[in-house]
Amino acid sequence: MLVRRAPDLKWRDVTPEPLYLRRREFLTAVPFALGAARAVLSGDEALAQGSGEKLEAAKSQYSTTETPTPFKDVTTYNNFYEFGTDKGDPARNANTLRPRPWTVTIDGAVTKGGKFAIDDLLKPYKLEERIYRHRCVEGWSIVVPWIGFPLGDLVKAVEPTEKAKFIEFTTLMDQRQMPGERSPVLDWPYSEGLRLDEAKNPLTILCVGLYGQVLPNQNGAPFRLVVPWKYGFKSIKSIVRIRFVEHQPATAWNKSAPNEYGFYSNVNPNVDHPRWSQAKERRLGEFTKRPTLMFNGYGDQVASMYTGMDLKKYY
Prior knowledge:
It contains 10 helices and 13 strands. It is of the alpha+beta class. It has a single domain, classed as Alpha-Beta Complex (Sulfite Oxidase, Chain A, domain 2), CATH 3.90.420. The chain starts with 16 loop residues before the first helix and ends in a 13-residue tail after the last helix.
């Protein structure tokens, strides 16, 4: 076999730019063809899988009847750049996160804001298990039995003022606990936002667990957002601040690539990502693609919030 030295390489020998730009599509397809990639975890890394502590939760009327994606796949194939950009990095690296003690600041245009220990903040709310479809902007999807409570219940409790039109969420900023934040891949800390009516929609939940147990680190412990009709990056993890604001907040991915990641980011098969189609998706663990559903299949519950909006302009 002829192996050329680097100086002998010609431009024609280099991977063409269009193929290079599509590398993420190829890489995300590989685990599905093989059955989802499974990480082999060391003792310390296994801590990131969660304590296994059980959570009691009532069944919810909002659950899909679809079969949940296996627990191991959901906890070893993640986007959580605070622990690395590879899908297996969060499960390998999130053992550094310490979800207790944890405080959450609620401020901005609210009457009853403050800084709360998470267990005190969660105490008034009844937990539900909600089996939701979850769609990633990269084209893969999962079905997860989340455990949480409606964000709208918390919104009501803190009494927003008339100026509150949006909510901004912020992830923990701590490079010792989240080593991926040392990388300039995003403008840290990670931030996301919702319009107030989106936050109060009954489908929007604050999540503290999955599969009947406490939320594992790599899935956003101890406290994350889940918005099932939007692409996955909107469901911000490891929240430390919830701020009620008058104007649309800047968000991490929108700041990084505004032509690719809009503020609304509703699942929409008719609006392609600049580098790939969103018309189909691949369920984790499956090979065959399936059609992407408008609003991820939750149109009956959420479409009315966007009546009259150009969903291609406000992607």
